[in-house]
Amino acid sequence: MENGYYPHVLTTDWRDAHPPVAIDPSLENLIPDGVRIDRLSHVNLLKELLELRSRFRSKVHGGGHGDSPEVPVDATPPSPIKRLKRDMMNRLFLFPDHQKPWIHAVNRHVKGLGRQERPDLVFATGNPWSALIAGQQVARYLSVPFVADFRDPWSQNPKPPLSDSLGRKAVVWERKILKDADCVVANTRELADAFAQEVPESSNKIVTITNGYHDGIFPDGRIAEQSRVADAKIELSHFGSVYELRSPIKLLQAIQQLWKAGVVTKEDIRVRFIGAWIVEDVACNRLAAELETAGLITREPPVAHDAYLNRLAAAQNLLILQQAFPLQIPGKIYEYIASGRPMIIVGGEGATANLVARHRLGLTFPNSIDQLAEGLRDLVEGKITVSCPGNDEIHRFSYGELTRQLAGVFDHLLLEKT
C-alpha cells in the first residue's frame, strides 16, 4: 500500500445512523483497492424509541389518516425540572453526539479481532466526536499509539451546545483527548494554536494537516491556465448555496453604492451566483432583484457536478462568502484551489483569511460595505490585481501530499515506540 500502511477502517452502518444521513455510493470509487472496511451495525436506542413513539401516535390518531390535531406551542420557559429532565436525556442519548452507541460497537468489534488483525496504530477522526472517544478507548486497550484528528473545533465550535452542562462536558472530554493522544492533528493552524493554549503540556504533539482536494478532481489532470472570456471587466463566480449565514447583502450593497455613484456599470463588474438561493431577508432579495435587472449580478440554478467543475476551471475569479469563524475554513475552498483560479474572499477573518494570505491564493475583503466598495473599485480601476496561485501552493493541498504528511506522523510515532 502507498506510504507503507495498510488501512483497516471501522465505520458505522449508515442504516443505523440517527438522524438519517444522505449517502453517495459513488464516493466509494475513490477508496483505493485493498482497503479493508468494516461497517459496524449498532443498536441506536434513541432511534428505536422515536420509531416506537411514532407508531404509537399513528395508532392513537387512526393510522395517520386525516390531519393531526394541532398542539399549541408553549412559549413559556421550561421549568427547572423540565430543564433537568431534558439535560439528562441529552446526556444519555446525545453526548458526545447522536452516534454515541457506535462507541460500544467499536470496542466489541476490536476485542474480537485476531492478533494478526490488530493495528499498529489507531487513527480516529472527528467529528462525529464519538469516533475520537472510541479511538482513544481502542488504542488504550491495544496499547498502541493514538492519533486524534480534529476536522472541526469541538468545544470551541461556533454552533452552541445543547446545554451549558453539555458544553462543559465537551471541554472536559476534548482536553482528555488532547492529553491522552500521542499526536493531535488539527485541520487549521488556528485550531492547532487554540489547542496549544487550551492544553499547553500537549503543544509539542500538535500538528496541522489541512483539508484538501482529491488528486483526480479534474478528469484530464489539468489545472486551468486561463479563464473563458468574462462578460465584465471583473467577474466573480460563487458556487453553492447562498443563505442567511452566508448572506451576500453587504457585497450587494457595496456594488449598489458603486453603481449608484456612477463608478461601475455592468461592463465593469458582474457577480454570478450558481446554486440554490435560500435567502429569506426581504431587503436582500429586493436588492438582488434590482442588481440582477441592472445586469450587475446573475442568479443561476445548481448544476451537475461535472458541469460545476468545468465552470469552476473557466471562471475568471472565484468568490467565497465566509462567516467570521476564526478557527474554520470552508471545505469548498479546496476545490477552488484545485481549479487554479484566483479567489476573492468576503469575510472569513481568522483561519480562512490567513490561509489565503499565507499561500497567496487571492484577496480577502472584510465583510464591510465601505471596505468592499473600495476593494471592488480598486479592482475595476486596476489599482490592485488578483493572481492565480502558484502550482506549488496548489499541489500542497492535494490528498496525495496530505496523506504523505500524515504517514510521516505515523512513521515518527512508530519509530518512537521501538
By oligomeric state, this entry counts as single chain
Query: Total domains, how many?
Result: 2
CATH architecture of the largest domain: 3-Layer(aba) Sandwich
CATH topology of the largest domain: Rossmann fold
Keywords:
14 strands; 418 residues; Rossmann fold; six-stranded parallel sheet; alpha/beta; four-stranded parallel sheet
Structure, explained:
The chain has 418 residues and is of the alpha/beta class. The protein has two domains: 2-61 and 98-212 and 400-417, Rossmann fold; 234-394, Glycogen Phosphorylase B (Rossmann fold, 3-Layer(aba) Sandwich), CATH 3.40.50. 40% of the residues lie in helices and 15% in strands. The protein has a six-stranded parallel β-sheet, with helices on both faces. It has a four-stranded parallel β-sheet with strand order 3-4-5-6, with helices on both faces. α11 links the parallel β13 (343-347) and β14. α3 (102-111) packs parallel to α4. Mean pLDDT is 87; it is low at 64-74.
